[in-house]
């Protein structure tokens, strides 16, 4: 197992380490996602992950759809569950973080 250490005080802690996750869609089908970005935000005191469906292709007109989620770790700090973004303020903050850290 990997240790999950974050400075949860005042800094925005960002990780660009990619990882594949298997999630289930609304029909119960397995869907493979790539974790594109993970960060802890001190103002909201939450950890966020930005996912993209694995194998999704972008062309000149369309961007790959990014799916932001809140990562709620379990009591041991490993694993946990992904839950939807809760507020407009969080959506605005995530958009700013993504635009700043994923410009290519």
Automatic annotation (TrEMBL):
Residues forming coiled coils: none
Domain of life: Bacteria
InterPro entries: UPF0473 (IPR009711)
Pfam families: DUF1292 (PF06949)
Family: Belongs to the UPF0473 family.
Matching NCBIfam families: PRK13678.1-1 (NF010214)
Name this protein carries in UniProt: UPF0473 protein J7T32_000620
Organism: Staphylococcus hominis
Lineage: Bacteria, Bacillati, Bacillota, Bacilli, Bacillales
